[in-house]
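Batch job 17 of 40 flagged for manual review because the log was empty.
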Amino acid sequence: MPTPVIAVTMGDPSGIGPEIIVKALARPDVHALCRPVVIGDAARLREAAAIVGATVTVRPVARPADGLGAAGTIDCIDLKTVPPGHPFGVMSAVSGEAAYRAIAKAAELCRTGETDAICTAPLNKEALHAAGHKFPGHTELLAHLTGTPEVSMMLVGPRLRVIHVTTHIGLVDAVAKIEPGLVERTIARGRATLVAAGLGEPRIGVCAINPHAGENGLFGHGEEAAKIDPAVATCRARGWSVEGPLPGDTLFFRAYRGDFDLVVAMYHDQGHIPIKVMGLEAGVNITVGLPVIRTSVDHGTAFDIAGRGIADEGSMVEALRQAAELAVRH
């Protein structure tokens, strides 16, 4: 296919999103992978370029097809959502609304076929809520915008991939929500994604909920037997390479050394902590199950360093690379 067109959402304009986008899109190697079009605010991007010292031209365009896709130029669908002098590093409803409008526009462009994938800079959940958009994050917001009843979050690092059965809910609620059907569907979504990416027959390890996988009923209340075992059995009956439930403390080590291609985590921190320990600059978040391709940086808005020009663009570059590769294989 031709070079994929990637809609890059600016995220929360008070965070580091504008800076990491400018840094990433100033790199010629990124333009060799894809044709990025930023959905956001042109003036904010110019401000960010001055902060990071990037020699780039921010060029407003009406449609993705109008973009040049050239190194040294940042094509931007300018939503004009950021007022002059808007501060960095401060949570606000203005920034939350700007982030929402960017992702809504990106979803629309993907649905109409004008772009091939979405790559998102981070938003702030509190700001999103302050603007009246009551979603836990990008994953749930994109599911709503695309009319998708159920999606999964997959985190990808250099030597580890993790898909989550539950994400942005409290731990007690997460355990209550886990049930065999949800576990089975999560395994299936993760496997399908890796097969589509050319992995062949992925080796999948499924985390337990309790320490030591429940130690044959010594820990917990039989959650492994009731909630996970039936899903694993169903997947294995299909001929898939699935093992579990396995203790999380050893499963992630085994996956890191190469025994598994994908780990199925039961809740948010169980999966996020191992990926983020390996380095925020290398991690990528992929939403699995959407009718559109969506990747994201694996970090937040970093209000504490926003506007200082020191944010690392590595995760954004990797997210763009993953979006381009998935779009080519889609």
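Reviewer: the log was empty due to a logging misconfiguration, but the result itself is present. The longest strand covers residues 35-40. Unflagging and moving on to job 18.
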